[in-house]
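go over this:
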Amino acid sequence: MHGKNLARTAAAAMMLAPIGAALADEPLSAQDPCNFHASMPLLERGVYDNYTYAERAHDAATESARLAAGVRIEIVSSGCVDSSARTYTLTYTGTALPERTLAQWAGVAQHELGALRLAEGAKDETRGIVAYAGAVAAARETGDKVVRCADDTAPTDGECAWRTGGSRGIEVRREPGGVRVVLTEESSR
């Protein structure tokens, strides 16, 4: 009896060995528990100068391109089992940039993001942030930063609680030689 069990155990081990070897050979990202929301490029390839797309560890990706003279976009995406985030940074370079309010920069960002040539299937990915930028512009928001929680509440400390479902925000960063308009969207499930 002992010999039969030993033979069965050996046969099972031989059958399972290729599976174990395959798992050991997989890259760490395939075993990463956050590898549930595969990132995808948003911008249509071959359209923009200086276009780059790079996948990062833990389901993150960075995409960037030059949109026009003096305007760059960088999109950073990340996700995990129960959350995802995307940051759009529009960088405007030049010393003669017009002085604009947060609402005016939000309108510019709405135009830039709305005019992007996107990869197939990516339009739905950007619709919410484009609408948010338009809402900030229409509300004539002031200051340098506005954050709104997904449940349409305003955070008391600048951060939305998990139970709100996430957030969208816009921040204008005035720097020597340019302006960065940073739009963020985060969702929690």
About this structure: The chain has two domains: 1-31, 33-188.
